[in-house]
Amino acid sequence: MRFFHSIVLVGLLSLGSVCAAHWGYEEENGPSTWGQDYPECNGVEQSPINIISKDTASVANALAIEYKADSQNIINNGHSVQVNFAKNNTITYGGQEYALVQLHFHTPSEHTIDGKSYPLEMHLVHSSTDGKLLVIGVLFKEGKANAELQKIVEAAPKQVGVVGAFEGLNPANILPNKRSYYAFSGSLTTPPCSQNVQWVVLGQIISASKSQIDSLHTIMHTNARNIQPLNGREIQSAQ
Length: 239
Hints:
single chain; 239 residues; alpha+beta; 13-stranded mixed β-sheet; 4 helices; 15 strands; globular; disordered N terminus
């Protein structure tokens, strides 16, 4: 996930700043080097992971999403295209309520399912009142254009550091109709790679057009961390 490099809730979830350039995705500053400055990137519960569907534990669906149109602005922060929200959008997971703080993108996908990668992944970052983080991951395949995603594509700043007003986006209109998911404990996928992040990766793959995917990739370039070891973590699945 493309965040700011300071302390988790202050730096990672604030808006308007541009990420420091000392970490990135090139050979000299890419994921293999992050642990030098950010020790938690070497932790045992890191993300992203490869989800092996046959090895998941089936559980009751504990996810309820209540989104509406309350986006505030959009920024090219140097690592991703990010849309910030006013925290009026909420979800409930396992009886805990979380507010949507921001969403952003990766090309290609960071998570894989049964070893399959996808050309685009969206992360919706949520925070609870006691500071817990939950991220919903949404995977895109190439196909029909997504009308709500097109609003982001058209508004996305091409220059790093540019923030634009961006109101009226309802992220619910991007999501798949089916809310099946895979859930596991992981980390932020960028420095400082903080752990104890609840991940919910939706199981239904949705479509974005080649033009939409290419447009985001042109701005962000390749910005996906490599798959991390599972290290015995349980992955739950819910229909």
